[in-house]
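Hi C.,

You asked whether I'd gotten around to modeling the 273-residue construct. I have! Everything is below, sequence then structure, no commentary in between.
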Amino acid sequence: MPADDRQSQAGHFKASPTGPSVAPPRISPRPLSPPPRSVIGWRRGPIWSLVFFVLLVCGVGIRAYRDLSQPEAWAYWKESYLAPSMTSSFISKVDVDSSGHGRATLAIRGMIGAASASWLRDRLEESRLAAGDLVLLSSPGGNVEQALIMGEIIRSHGLSTAVGTIDASGRITRSSCASACVLIYAGGMVRYGIEGSRLGVHRFVASLPARDPIAEAQRTTGTILSYVTKMGISSSVVEAMSQTREIRWLDPAEALAMHLVTEPIRAAESARH
């Protein structure tokens, strides 16, 4: 090796105590790799979940609006959750027929509304009436379809019915049951006829406009005829209904002949045990 080269190399080693300096290798820049799929899914997941949730809420809201926009649907919702049209009171013992046996009694009053059947079912569960106990009615009528269901509920529980109210002393006093209320009364296994109380019937009409009023009237009449026959009542009560659109108050003897009343009793005999 030439002397000049040896001196240059020696001088380089002296400048670098660890040996000759070597430049670090150049690292060529690499493109950034995309984030893992799990990160992408995490970022997109909440967005799509939110979009799906908004669409779901909008769909349910639109459907609910369409449902509640119907008059009968709104009436049912109001009856169920806001203001029931009927009221009730429970009396533990009422001697309705002077037998000396006090009967648990549920007295219900008011207009029969769009959700009165569900309301009655709840009241019966709360009062725990047993077969032979009494449902006392005082109503001007109302929804025919609900009245039919209410009568079926009363019959399925083996309950009796009467028309009247309970006064402060616990006695049954006279009252009236008209129109659709008569269909509820018809559901009783025993149907007491309180002296002075009245049963009123009339021709039923559709609560909502029908495309064919005549066909709707025939359907309603056929349904009521089938119902009263099932309850052991003469078809003559349906004939009496069809004769007038105004309330016709049945004579006690007439109601008894129709088998609408099965047990006539005097009002003075109905007292709290």
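If it helps when you're writing up: The CA atoms of residues 171 and 263 lie 18 Å apart.

Thanks,
B.
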